Structure formats: C-alpha cells, structure tokens
Amino acid sequence: MSLPPRRKRAIQTPASVGPIDLERAMTGNESALQMVLTGDPGLYAIVQLSLLVSISAVLFATVIGVPAGAALALVRFPGREAVTILLNAMMGLPPVVVGLAIFLLLSRSGPLGSWGLLFTPQAMVVAQTVMVAPIIAALTRQTIEDLWVDYRDELAAMAVGPVRRVATLVWDARFSLVTAFLAGFGRAAAEVGAIIIVGGNIDGFTRTMTTAIALETSKGDLPLAIGLGMILITIVIAINALAWIARRAGERYAG
Amino acid sequence: MRASASDLPVMLAEVKVVAGTVTILDDVSVTIAAGAPTILIGPNGSGKTTLLRVAMGLLAPTRGRIAWGGREAAPPKKRAIVFQRPVMLHRSAAGNVRYSLAAAGVPRAQRNDRVAELLMLVGLSDLGHRPARRLSGGEQQRLALARALARDPDILFLDEPTASLDPAATKAIEDIVRAVAARGVKVVMSTHDLGQARRLAGDIAMLHRGRLLENGPAAAFFAGPRTEEARRFIAGELLV
What we know:
Shape of chain A: globular
Number of helices of chain B: 8
Helix content of chain A: over 70%
Number of domains of chain B: 2
CATH superfamily of chain A: MetI-like
Oligomer: heterodimer
Number of domains of chain A: 1
Structural class of chain A: mainly alpha
Strand order of the largest sheet of chain B: 5-6-7-3-8-9
Strand content of chain A: under 5%
Number of strands of chain B: 9
CATH topology of chain A: MetI-like fold
Structural class of chain B: alpha/beta
CATH architecture of chain A: Orthogonal Bundle
Number of helices of chain A: 11
Shape of chain B: globular
Low-confidence stretches of chain A: 7-17
Order of helices and strands of chain A: HHHHHHHHHHH
C-alpha cells in the first residue's frame, strides 16, 4: 500500500477557493504590501469609513459618557453602587450582543424601524456608541471620583459651587480622560461583531476594516485582508502611543 | 473698605462634636477676635483639627452654635484655611493661586497681578510655572498659604502648617505668618510645637481630650498656667 504523493503545504480555505499561496499574498505583485504602499483606492475607502465610524462613535460616547460618569461620581442616590457595578460590567459588553440589540431596535419591524437606519454607516455608529459610552462613562466615574476625594476639602474651603466644581474636576482630569477616549476608540476600531450585524458589510457602503478582514479571509482574498490587518495594527499602536504621550504631557504640565 | 461684612469675631458657644460614640469636642466656648495670632495647642487627638474645621464652617457641630461677625450662616468668603496636608490642584503653582482668586470672585483683569504678588509674598516667584505637585513639602505649604491668602481673608486658619518640615522650611512659614498677621489678618494656628507657640502666639488656647482647658494671653499662659494639664504640657511631660 502506498501513500498518496505528498502535496505542497498550503492553507486550506473554504471549498470554492482552493489553496492559497501565502508568500504571493504577502509580497507579490497584487500583494498586501503593494496595496498599502500604492494607496489602493478600495483599501483606503474602507480605512476611511472605519475611522469615520469609530471616531464619530467616540465623539457621541464622550458627549454621553463624560457627564454620566461625572454625575455618577458626584451625585449620591439610592442604587448608586448597583449602577456603578452594572456600568463597569458593561465595559465588557460582547459586541455581537450589542449588534443584535441594535439590529432588533432598527430592523423594519423594530421600534425604530421607521428610521430606516439598518445597514447604514449611521447604524454602525449607533452600535459602537452603545459599546464605547459605558467604557468612557466608567473610566470617567473612576477618575472623577478619585480626584473628588482628593479635592473635596480644598474646594469646600474655597466655597466652590456645584457647577464650577464639576468643571474643575473634568478639566483637572483631562489628561486621564484622554486615556479613556483612546481606550474607547481602540475598542471601537477593533470590533467586528456589532458592525457586521447592523452594517451588513456592504461593499463600498458599510464595509470597514474589520468586516472586510472577516469577509476577505473567508473568501480567500488574503492580500486585502492582510493589508487591512497591517493598517489596523498600526492604528492600534498609534493609539497606544498617543495615550502614552497624553499621560506624559499630563505629568509634565499638571503634575 | 471691604465689600462684605467682617467675619470677626468668630464665636463658638458650647460647641460639641460627636462622631459615632466618640466625643471629639466637648462644650467648647471661645471667642476669636482680631489681634495677634491665636495658637491652638494640645496633644494629637485633642480636637485641634476639628475645632479649626468647625470655626472655618466646614463641619457643623453636633450641638452648640457658631457665629461669624454675629451671623450664624456666613459663607466662607472672608475665611481661609490651610489643611495639615494641603492638596495641590493638578495645575502649575501660579495656576493654583489663580484658581483660588477666581473662586473668590477676583476679576480676571486683576488676577495676574495678584498671582505675582502672592507668589512673591510666599517666596515662590521663580516657581510659578512648575506643576504644584512637583514642589517640595515646604514649597507646597507656602503655596497653600498663598492660595488661602488669595481669598483676602479676615481670618486665616492654619492646621499644623510646619508639622513635617525642617527648621529652614518652618522658619519660612513662620515669617509669612508674622507678615500676614502684621497686615491685620487674624491667624489661628494649631501646633504641638511649644517653641513655635512661644514664638508666634498672642493668645494661647489649649485643648485636651476635646475640652478647652486654657484660653488667654500667651504671656500669662506660659508664666502661670491655670490647669495641671497645661503645666505638665509646658514642662514637656508626655500628656496623653
């Protein structure tokens, strides 16, 4: 009995596609590197949409999350601890569940179906806002509450009223809050579960870096997936570098 | 002329502060009038900090009454306090003083001049741009003094401002206290350093276990204390 002849090793992808030459995908003529370096328009349209969606989501989440977090830090009310625990838990919301919830909300027969937002970039912004707002709110609450414990006596001695108090705490915590925004952006930019459900990954309309990577990998178009992957990782590294710089600047200018 | 009525004298009548089962201040009645500094002495835990907080209006007594210039509800416009461990805002040294000026309602146009003047008074003119939290302990205490003086107070409460400072830093603080008192600001300062009390006091008030044992001119206090506890305290015995 003889074994079948040994074949060249290749990555096996879904049936229709056949084996893939990884080396060609990485460095060949139509390769990932080539696309990134030559500014392939399809690739950069996807990058642009991704950034637009995630940055919008972080802006909305900031508008919601910072006041909510500050209020939770400074206002005493019954059930405050439960809300805090819930908020901290929501930092780890599974993106697919958020996607599902927003899908149900926006689908044609859902409560907000008449807005016609499902499978639009706006729907993706909504989903990512829902994911990021708890992160920003929870980190804001922690930061503001710690600072308030620190400042309470001094501000009381200076007879600082409630409005100026909140403004002072948010302003003096600004360098720490930047870290919260960047953490939110990092999570939004890297998630795929929520936006693929509510956006639908429509080519040229709701296709983002993460959804494209998921799709192209399963289709076998590795160059695009790898190119996007490289850009995504670069962005994540840049975000962390920014967070680092913000913290250093905070230490330098504000102590 | 000052715009608002003076906060002096500060009158405490039968003030009692209870926290849980512990009586921190017990029937303290005292009148603090304008004049040379009143130094508040007594061992740790005798109630000095609590008395200062009550007199500042930061802590409502459990029983008893307090009035500033005859008014029982007076927002701390003309009072200022430097806590034992002052908290620096996350701003520059000048930013800390400027913040206090703004909180006190000093018009924006006057703030820069006042910041410079106050930093000069406490000897921090060269360090205005530094983050306040990067200053040394003594510098932070002086900055806290500048921040308190930014409120242009009638009365200034100081809670052991030299507790953890070396002699040079202590002297710097004492010099500022003298200068401030000479300008007519009433200083009420706690310490458990008897030497410091002798150097600065016009009046002495002595607390022990929440009770006000002595209250009167410093010379008389040091020459002939009325109570046994005060005599032992002056003699340097360990009063507990």
